[in-house]
């Protein structure tokens, strides 16, 4: 087996950039499809925008499929947007120090939004105690 030297930092960086570029293309296509499905289900089926209320979301998230669908869409959109902003920071930030701080803020904000969004999707209570019964979905007691 021939000896292969360790990969240089430049080569590892270019592989990451290639993977990030591929991720942007594939996630963009998948997001486009998911967004049109999301808009069709929420706005075209049923009564259109008049149906969008707490009961609609509660009924939709009562099914695990829609929870996972919205979770995947959230994660893809946040990662896609974060990667795009990372590229903009690399292009326009003047110094390495400003790039580091801007990327740290970007990463922190992205992690917080992904964590909070995931928490909301999976801890959402469709039938909260003490709520106005007229605002609840029909399946609530």
TrEMBL record:
Q: Which Gene3D superfamilies match?
A: Fumarate reductase/succinate dehydrogenase, transmembrane subunit
Q: List the InterPro entries hit by this protein, alphabetically.
A: SQR/QFR_C/D (IPR034804), SuccDH_FuR_B_TM-su (IPR000701)
Top-level division of the source organism's lineage: Bacteria
Q: Which UniProt keywords apply?
A: Heme, Iron, Membrane, Metal-binding, Transmembrane, Transmembrane helix
Q: Where in the cell is it found?
A: Membrane
Question: Is this entry keyworded Membrane?
Answer: yes
One Pfam family recorded for the sequence: Sdh_cyt
Tell me where the transmembrane regions lie.
21-45, 65-88, 100-124
This chain belongs to the protein called Succinate dehydrogenase, hydrophobic membrane anchor protein
Q: Which organism is it from?
A: Arthrobacter parietis
* Taxon lineage: Bacteria, Bacillati, Actinomycetota, Actinomycetes, Micrococcales
Q: Which gene encodes it?
A: sdhD
């Amino acid at each position: 087996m021939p000896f292969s030297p360790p990969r240089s930092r430049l080569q590892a960086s270019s592989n990451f950039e290639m993977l990030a570029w591929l991720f942007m293309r594939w996630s963009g296509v998948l997001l486009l499809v998911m967004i049109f499905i999301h808009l069709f289900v929420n706005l075209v089926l049923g009564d259109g925008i008049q149906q969008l209320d707490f009961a609609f979301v509660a009924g939709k998230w009562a099914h695990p499929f829609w929870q996972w669908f919205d979770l995947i869409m959230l994660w893809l959109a946040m990662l896609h947007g974060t990667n795009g902003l990372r590229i903009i920071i690399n292009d326009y930030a003047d110094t390495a120090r400003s790039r580091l701080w801007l990327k740290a803020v970007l990463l922190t904000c992205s992690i917080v939004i992904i964590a909070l969004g995931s928490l909301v999707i999976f801890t959402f209570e469709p039938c909260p105690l003490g709520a106005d019964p007229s605002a609840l979905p029909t399946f609530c007691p």
